[in-house]
Amino acid sequence: MTGNNLEVFTSSNALFEQMIHDIEEADSSCHMQFYIWQSGGRVDAVAQALCRAAKRGVTCRVLVDSIGSRSFIRSPQAEMMRSAGIKVLESLQAGLIKAFFARIDIRNHRKLVIIDGTIAYTGSQNMVDPAHFKQDEGVGRWVDIMLRIRGPVVESLAGTFCNDWFLETDTDHSKIRALKEDISRIRQIADVYPIEAKGNIAIQAVPSGPGLVPDAIHKLLITAIYSARKELIVTTPYFVPDDLLLTALKSASEKGVDVRLVLPKKNNSKLVHFASQAHFEDLMRAGVKIFLFTDGLLHAKTITIDGELTLLGSVNLDMRSFWLNFELTLLIYCHIFTEEIRNQQLTYQ
Question: Can you tell which superkingdom this protein's organism belongs to (predicted)?
Fold first, then answer.
């Protein structure tokens, strides 16, 4: 979809300020979906803004992963939000009893905010304040990239949230009627509708996860890597590739592409840390350049290709993101925007 406008946020403080402003200006709905929601710092200000919105009649829905946000779901902040009229829902409920009847290893890893069906945020950051989040793990602040999006692709992103929400809730609004009536009614109550152009950037939204095409994101990433002709820069916090991904990266380098892989030097998962390092020698022998980020835990998941194409979202380069998690990736076809992301990637090296 062309006609989109993008703003890049690499500062969590600037992100929270803009997001709170958009919530304060909301007229109809505020929808939020995160793998992790942790109270504290600027997150408390977001929660308070949502409460004020709900009290003035804005429909507020918050969808959080049952495992990633386990401490939040029964927290005082969640109770405060429910009391204000905000609908807080667990995604993919997990527990001891549930483990006997459902796959609790399948998680919803998406990060998505939709305001009034016209403004969207997505990227790599959870609803956490980096100044407070996991500061006892010895890896420093988490470093993320988020996008604020306006334009036609917001309809697809709003539809993604709508799909995840109504899969989890038993609402009268989504009872089976005539298909056309169902779609129209859900569009109305969830603010999913076509949006006029706000810019000139072409974006493709790619939700992925277990379903009809479970290997969609894996195939997309492999194809994107093989499409590189001059340069390929990848940033990811978790790098545990399979043979196909390793072969693609090595093949790109061996055919003359400048392949750069940027990973955090310190990781919050020791297992991932050592699993990643196990591939370094093989990759470097093929000419892949590996950079280790030292100023915190690099959590941004980005790929730029030949200065023309950007992939950005919630997907890590590991088997969980490829096969088990519900994820969201944006393919952004714009050399000006890609240059902005590429310049940010270079600061991590």
Answer: Eukaryota
